[in-house]
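Deviation from plan, reported transparently: adenosine monophosphate complex.
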Amino acid sequence: MEIVRTVADLRKHIALWRKGEVRVGLVPTMGALHQGHMALVEAARAECDRIVASIFVNPKQFAPTEDLGSYPRREAADLDIPAVDEMYPPDFATLVRVSGLTGGLCGAHRSGHFDGVTTVVTKLLIQALPDVAYFGEKDYQQLTVVRRLARDLDLPVRIAGVPTVREPDGLALSSRNVYLSAEERRIAPNLARVLRSIAAVLAQDPNAVAQEIAHGSAALQQAGFAVEYLEIREAESLAVTSEVTASSRVFAAVRLGTTRLIDNMPIAPAAP
Ligand code: AMP
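Because the crystal trials were delayed, the predicted structure below was used instead.
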């Protein structure tokens, strides 16, 4: 593994690789690496000859009230983080915004978040010029938004989605799970459990959306979560669904104490 800390150095390496017939994969992360990130690296390894993994904690995707200051940084394990100025010089003035898809779900609750994501992902894609870039389904709205960004800007890259990696009890791996107290960690798997149960009911009864959202919200609250949103939406358009289709997914964001958790899963309706 080679470590680069500047865009110029990254480009030099990739230019050398490109002299051969190599496929380059990009795995953007914010460090604090876990097995979910490693699943992206494994997916890249299966398809690409060279992999660039970034570990930049992107300040632009955190709202002023959010956890940028306390976001888990494991610099020794993740390697030193690059200086923020390398990505954003003080007079940085450009914003990449995907409209529509970013209006609901997390976009409705995290002001400016997706503008920060799409700006940094555009930069990373242009810096690394990968053949394929890997994103986790754990952040499904992000995956959808990045796909649209790449299509709209004609970026010559395939955006690959990687299924969510979970703990044995169902909790989706996340860098933020380290914030959970022992009691919260015990409660946390109920998020996936409730989503799985909603998906199972809706797979059998595609018209029961309103009822399942009401039941699911109540179950989440009873488990100890504050519910930010619980919604059924279409995978590609993120349009709100009142009747489940083959591409519907259930999406949720909750708070457990001060920790925000998100999760989502597909709903596969039973074949008629
Ligand atoms: P993050 O470091 O949290 O910004 O995540 C970097 C990438 O890893 C994103 O594409 C995430 O969707 C992905 N990722 C995070 N957690 C998981 C997980 N449990 N399973 C699969 N991918 C994940």
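The pocket of adenosine monophosphate is lined by residues 29-30, 36-37, 39-40, 135-136, 138-139, 162, 164-165, 172-175 (CB under 6 Å). We consider this an acceptable substitute for the interim report.
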